[in-house]
Description:
The chain has helices spanning 33-59, 65-88; strands at 10-15, 21-24. It is mainly alpha-helical. The chain has a two-stranded antiparallel ribbon. The protein has one domain (10-88). 56% of the residues lie in helices and 11% in strands. It has two helices and two strands.
Amino acid sequence: MSADGFEAARPLPWSGLDGRRAYVIADPERPGPVSRRADALESVQLEMAGVLLGHAWQLADEAGPEELRYLVVELTRTLAETLRIALRVKP
């Protein structure tokens, strides 16, 4: 946190209208509506990651090449989202 009470820019879990990364600067002690919406979306993303992992375990032995390709794409996307969330939330 900086001297003015605000943390560094937080990357949001969605892109701006131009497709580039979107950020918000907010007081971590009093999150505003954008920060709360980002928290809610990140929570959904983490829950979806768990569901996808469960499907991956089921499909791993029985899926064909097309299903495995789709699974790899979705797991990669979900892992990237999960890492972005985990790296932002430092213990």
